[in-house]
Amino acid sequence: MRLHFTKMHGLGNDFVVIDAISQRLDMTPELSRRLADRRFGIGCDQVLLVEAARLPGTEFHYRIFNADGSEVEQCGNGARCFARFVRDQGLTRSDDIAVGTAAGPIRLKAQPDGQISVDMGVPQLDPAAIPFQARRRAAAYDLWQGCSALRIGAVSMGNPHAVLHVEDIAQAPVAELGPRIECDPRFPRRVNVGFMQIIDAAHIRLRVWERGVGETLACGTGACAAVVIGRLWGELDEAVEVTLPGGALQIQWAGEGASVTMTGPAARVFEGDIEL
Ligand SMILES: N[C@@H](CCC[C@H](N)C(=O)O)C(=O)O
Question: How much is the pTM?
Answer without folding.
Answer: 0.98
